[in-house]
Automatic annotation (TrEMBL):
The lineage of its organism: Bacteria, Bacillati, Bacillota, Bacilli, Bacillales. PANTHER family: P3 PROTEIN-RELATED, SODIUM-BILE ACID COTRANSPORTER. It holds the Pfam family SBF. The keyword Transmembrane helix applies. It comes from the Bacteria. It is found in: Membrane. Its main location: membrane. It comes from Salibacterium salarium. GO terms for cellular component: membrane. The chain crosses the membrane at residues 12-31, 37-56, 68-91, 97-119, 126-146, 158-179, 200-218, 224-249, 270-293. It is a multi-pass membrane protein. Keywords: Membrane, Transmembrane, Transmembrane helix. This is Bile acid:sodium symporter family protein.
C-alpha cells in the first residue's frame, strides 16, 4: 500500500505542488505559524532520502569525476552568475529581489532529481554523487556565492545560513548514510517505507513557505508575472546547458540526462526556508515562484529529451540504411 502511495505521489507531484502553493498564499495562509518546524521536517526528508542511497553506484561515479565537476560548475557558478546579471538588468533598484534570484539558483540540487533521472533513463550513480557532494558542500558554497555576488549590498546572517543548511540537510544526510553503511544497505527497506511520508513532508514544507510569503501574492501585478517568467527562463537555460554541454565531451545519453536534471532542479524547499528565515520576505519570492513550476518543468524537460533522442536515433537509423544501400549498389 505504501509503495502504491509513493508511486501515486511521484506521478501527482507536478500537479499537486502548484495547488499547495495556491492554498498556502490564499486559504491556508495561517500555516505560516508552523514555520519553526520547517527545519525539523527537512531534517526528516534528508535523513529518509539517504537511507536508500546505493553507495556502490556513488563510488563508481567518483571514478570518473569530470561530469561531477562540470555539473557543480553549472550549479554554483554559471547559473548563479546568470541569475545575478538578470537581476541587475531587470531589478537594479531592488537588491532584495536580486538576492532572491541568486539564492533561487544557488541552493543545492535536491534528492527529488533522482526520481526524474530514474524515470528518463539517466545515470543514477552520477546523480547520487552530484546530490551528495553538492549537499555536503552547501553550507560553504551557498553563503560564499551569495557573499561574492550580493554580500556587500545585502545584510546577511552568514553563520545562520551555514547553520541552517547544516542542520536541515547535511547532518541528517550524514546520519542516513552512516545508517545505510552500518546496516550494509538493509536500511533501504526503511527508506522505501518512509518515501511516501517524505513526499508528504515536502508538500507540508511548500505549504508553510508559501504561507510565509502570502502577503506578496495578494496583488498579482505585472512585476510578479514578469518575475515568474524570468525565473522560468533561467531554469530553462540551466536545463539546456546541462543537456547539451555533455555532447561537447562526447558523453553518453544517460550522463546527459543526469546533468540536465541536476543542473535544472534545485532543493527549492530548502531555498524557501532559508529565504524566509535569513532574508527579507521579498527575497523569498523568486524561490517560491520556482517551487510552483519546478516539477512541471521537469516533466516538460523529460518529454523534450525523449523526443530529442528519438529523433536522433531515427536519423542515425536512416543514415545507416542509406550507407547500406550505397554499399549494395
Amino acid at each position: 500500500m505504501l509503495q502504491r502511495m509513493n508511486l501515486f505521489l511521484e506521478k501527482a507531484m507536478p500537479y499537486v505542488i502548484p495547488i499547495i502553493v495556491f492554498l498556502g498564499v490564499t486559504l491556508w495562509s495561517g500555516a505560516q505559524s508552523w514555520a519553526p518546524f520547517v527545519k525539523w521536517i527537512f531534517a526528516f526528508i534528508s535523513f529518509s532520502s539517504c537511507l536508500s542511497l546505493n553507495l556502490l553506484q556513488v563510488k563508481q561515479a567518483f571514478s570518473r569525476p569530470l561530469p561531477i565537476i562540470i555539473c557543480l560548475s553549472i550549479l554554483q557558478f554559471i547559473i548563479p552568475l546568470l541569475a545575478y546579471v538578470s537581476g541587475i538588468v531587470f531589478f537594479s533598484e531592488n537588491i532584495n529581489m536580486i538576492a532572491g534570484l541568486v539564492l533561487a539558483f544557488t541552493i543545492p540540487t535536491g534528492v527529488v532529481t533522482l526520481m526524474w533521472v530514474g524515470l528518463k533513463g539517466g545515470n543514477k550513480g552520477l546523480t547520487l554523487a552530484i546530490v551528495l557532494v553538492h549537499t555536503l558542500l552547501s553550507p560553504f558554497l551557498v553563503p560564499l556565492t551569495l557573499q561574492v555576488l550580493v554580500g556587500a549590498q545585502v545584510s546577511m546572517d552568514v553563520f545562520g545560513l551555514m547553520s541552517g543548511l547544516f542542520w536541515m540537510i547535511v547532518f541528517p544526510s550524514i546520519i542516513g548514510i552512516v545508517v545505510n553503511r552500518v546496516t550494509n544497505g538493509k536500511s533501504k527497506k526503511l527508506g522505501t517505507t518512509l518515501a511516501p511520508f517524505s513526499k508528504v513532508a515536502i508538500l507540508v514544507v511548500i505549504l508553510i513557505n508559501s504561507a510565509v510569503v502570502s502577503p506578496y501574492f495578494q496583488t498579482i501585478d505585472g512585476t510578479l508575472i514578469f518575475l515568474f517568467f524570468l525565473v522560468w527562463g533561467i531554469a530553462c537555460v540551466a536545463y539546456m546547458i546541462g543537456l547539451f554541454l555533455p555532447f561537447l565531451f562526447k558523453w553518453d545519453k544517460s550522463t546527459a540526462i543526469s546533468l540536465m536534471y541536476n543542473s535544472g532542479m534545485r532543493n527549492t524547499g530548502v531555498g524557501a526556508s532559508l529565504a524566509v528565515t535569513y532574508f527579507p520576505p521579498a527575497a523569498a519570492l523568486p524561490v517560491v515562484l520556482s517551487i510552483v513550476f519546478q516539477q512541471f518543468l521537469a516533466a516538460i524537460a523529460g518529454r523534450f529529451v525523449t523526443y530529442y533522442f528519438d529523433v536522433e536515433r531515427q536519423e542515425k537509423k536512416e543514415d545507416e540504411m542509406k550507407k547500406g544501400r550505397k554499399l549494395s549498389s
